[in-house]
Structures are given as C-alpha cells and as structure tokens.
Design brief:
This protein is of the alpha+beta class. The chain has 2 domains: 102 residues, no CATH class; 223 residues, MetI-like fold, CATH 1.10.3720.10. It is built from 12 helices and 12 strands. The strands form 3 sheets. A 5-stranded antiparallel β-sheet has the order 4-1-10-9-8, with no helix packed on it. Strand 11 and strand 12 form a beta hairpin. The longest helix is centred in the N-terminal third of the chain and has 36 residues. It is elongated.
Length: 396
C-alpha cells in the first residue's frame, strides 16, 4: 500500500513539475517575443509627452500642474499644445503646432513663443525649449517628446548603422555578420580538433590515461566564460597584436580563437561518449576484414557515432553563438560590417549585455528584438544541421 501510494505521489509530482516547467518556458518565450515584436507594430507612446524642468506651476491646454515631476501626456492627434507658466514677473507662453501627417520629426513640429527662447534638437523625436537665465543650471526647460512610429523590420535586419541614442537608427546587420563569422570561424577551427581529440581518447588511449584526460576536459567545460575571456585578453589579444603588427589585438580573429577554445570541452565530451558507446563487435568486424585501427576508427566507429557527434556540434554552435562575456573582452565591440579577421567586430549578445543597463523606450525594445533575432538564428542553424544529418544518414 505504501509503495503504491509513493508511486502515485511521485507520478503526479513529476507531472506537475513538468507542466509548470513547460508553462514557465512558454511564458518566457512569449514575453520575449512580444517585447521583441512591439517596435515593428506600435509607436512608443500614444501621443506627445512633455517634461517640465525647474517649472513648479505650469498650465497645459487649460490644465494646471503643480510640482509635476513626471510626464505630461497629451492625447493623440492633438495639433496644438498651449503652455503657460510664470517666470518672475511675466507669464511665459509657448504654443506647439504638430503636423500629425508629417513623418519627418524635424519638420513635424513648429513653435510660437512670447519671449526669447532657445530650441534645441538633442536627439531624434525630442525637442528641448529653454528660457535664458543668469546661470545655465537655473534655466527653465520643457522637453517635448514625440511618439516614435513603428520601425521597419527590413531596416532593422539589413541596416548598417547602430545609433540608438542620437538618431534612433537601429541596424543590426553588422552584428549579425559579426556573430556568424565568429561562430563559424570557431566551429571550423574547433570541431576538427575536438573530433581528433575524441577519437584519440576513445580509440587509441589506454583506459587509465583516458580517464585522467577525460576528467581534465570535463573540468575545462566548467570554467566560467569570463575566465576564458580574461585569458584571451591577457594572452591571445597581445599575441594577435604582436604577430600581425596591428594597433589593437581586439579583433574577430581573437574572438574566433577564444570561442574555439570554449567549445572544445563540450564537443570533445559528447563526441567521446558517443564513440565509446559504439559496440565492440563493430570494431572487431572491421579489424577482421583487414582494416587498420586508424581506418576502423575513422571509417567505421565515427560514422556509427554520427548522431552523438552532431549533437556535440550543435551544442558547440549554440554556445559559440550565445557567448557574451568572453566576446566582449576580446572582439573590440565596434559595430562595423567587415570580413577582415583583424578588424574589430561586435556580436548580438555583446550589444544586449553592454546596452541593456541604460537603455529605455524604443532602445530597450530593440534589444529585446535582438534577443529574438539571436534565438531565431540558433533555431535555424540547429534545424539545418539536423536536416542535413537526416539527409546524409544511411543504414550501416
């Protein structure tokens, strides 16, 4: 009775935990995809926003605001915003005319004012109106923030410039190229080395030395990425700079070498486990037909472990594409489109990590969009690899 009760209890417990895990994962993906898609379908605000700086008593379109420290929201499609506030012995007046049909933010707003003012355009979709004072820190200011329209998905994916602060330009094609170049370079460099190491450990090394090497490889897999990045910054970056006689060693080549080192333990461990799982009868059959040990390992054992090896490669690609801290330290982080391995590059993950701390508004939404793009890239790459495996897989 107790055993039956225990079995039923753990069965339901496992089912509940699995259900909540799936729901949590689905909620996270839904949230990220919703945030990432918002910039392409909605405006940042429903209407114009005002921010009064060092103005304690202000009237906007007949409504009085006293000690107002947050945004003053103007309803959508308002064409005139009338502002009044006391400034010493006089009442300052400012009328803002908005052309809602004009797409260019530099032409959509005009101002009519009663006294001398200074109007600046510090960044796209933002105007600052300042009234003169004896000292600049005492100036009364009103910041006019226009709603940013939905951003073009084509411009986002194919744009060559990333200027989120001043011009609100969000082009991530150089970062997509940097991510793919660094990842594929690391795969091309690291996977052959990893497969040779796995074959050596599984087929040619004696059991006791192989267990020691295996433990060392597994230990390397647990090293934090920031340690690899620090090693790259202290060793690989100076090596690249000295070898190629360039001003800075922070480059695409440095990122490729560091990423190749990082994926080696993962690919070696999974590939070596798959190779050791091949039945001994397969090796004996090949050797009995006159094949050498090398021919058996390369032409018989490795194809039999095809599924496990490809799984290791997939995990290696996922780690290379998603790596952040190590790449930040060695890649140079310049958002430029280049195929020169000695030039500085920036990846998608680096952009998210470096800018999420201070991003807001449309900038923050675009960083979520970069996350969705990164997820899509990993999904597409893994799907292509699995499709290729199924296509090439033949019964042995």
């Amino acid at each position: 009775m107790n055993r039956k009760f225990t079995d039923v209890f753990f069965k339901h417990l496992v089912s509940i935990v699995a259900l909540f895990s799936v729901l949590a994962l689905g909620a996270i993906l839904l949230f990220v995809f919703a945030q990432g898609s918002m910039p392409f379908f909605t405006s940042t605000y429903s209407g114009v926003r005002l921010v009064a700086q060092r103005i304690d008593n202000i009237t906007v379109n007949g409504l009085n605001y006293i000690d107002h420290n947050t945004f003053i929201d103007i309803p959508k499609n308002y064409e005139v915003i009338s502002i009044r506030f006391p400034n010493g012995d006089i009442e300052e007046t400012l009328d803002i005319f908005i052309n809602n049909n004009e797409k260019d933010p530099t032409k959509s707003v005009s101002f009519v004012y009663g006294s001398e003012v200074d109007i600046t355009y510090p960044e796209s979709y933002v105007y600052t109106v300042s009234w003169p004072a004896a000292f600049a820190p005492l100036q009364k200011r009103i910041h006019v923030i226009l709603p940013e329209p939905p951003y073009s998905l084509g411009k986002f994916l194919s744009g060559l410039e990333w200027r989120p602060s001043r011009d609100k330009v969000f082009g991530i094609f150089p970062m997509i190229a940097g991510t793919l170049l660094a990842s594929f370079g690391a795969i091309l460099l690291g996977v052959p080395i990893a497969l040779l190491c796995a074959l050596f450990m599984a087929e040619f090394l004696k059991p006791k030395p192989a267990s020691i090497v295996r433990a060392g490889v597994e230990l390397l897999a647990g090293i934090p990425s920031v340690v690899y990045g620090f090693f790259g910054l202290m060793v690989i970056v100076p090596f690249v700079r000295t070898t190629f006689n360039i001003p800075s060693g922070n480059s695409l080549l440095s990122a490729i070498i560091v990423l190749a080192l990082m994926i080696l333990p993962t690919v070696i461990t999974i590939a070596e486990t798959s190779l050791r799982a091949v039945p001994i009868s397969v090796r004996e059959a090949s050797l009995s037909l006159g094949a050498s040990k090398m021919q058996t390992a390369w032409r018989v054992v490795l194809p039999h472990a095809n599924s496990g090896v490809i799984a290791g490669v997939i995990l290696g690609i996922s780690r290379a594409v998603g790596e952040t801290m190590a790449v930040i330290l060695v890649a140079g982080n310049s958002p430029q489109l280049t195929i020169n391995p000695l030039a500085s590059v920036r990846t998608l993950t680096s952009t998210i990590a470096m800018e999420m701390g201070y991003a807001s508004g449309r900038h923050s939404e675009m960083l979520f969009s970069i996350g969705v793009t990164l997820f899509s890239i990993i999904l597409i790459l893994n799907s292509l690899i699995l499709w290729y495996r199924r296509k090439m897989e033949q019964p042995l």
